[in-house]
Automatic annotation (TrEMBL):
InterPro entries: DUF7344. This is DUF7344 domain-containing protein. Pfam families: DUF7344 (PF24035). Residues 23-89 form the DUF7344 domain.
Amino acid sequence: MFGRLFGRQPVSSPIHLSRDELFNLCRVERRRHAITIMADVEDVIPMRTLVDEVTSREFGPDWTTNQRTTVYTTFYQQHVSILDDADVLSAPDGPSGSLYPEANAEPLAELLSFIETISD
């Protein structure tokens, strides 16, 4: 719908999620950050690198160890499995190991970018 309104398609390939799955996935800022980061990963990213980048985006470059620990804990306990289920990433070594981008990472990042350009 937005693509028709604004003259361009918001994503280059289909996102294979239901509306409810999509809304649930994108309702959390940390997951939105992870989606955009995973879309830029070409091969693999260590969990610690993803957590460091998300922490920087959320708290700025002067984040504290406690802030990073909080972000790491939520990713380890919750976000990695949700992102894995949504085909944004895969974590074959478990949530603390290496993370690989999957099919929905890029189109979801495109959608988030598109939404950002049309919202305040």
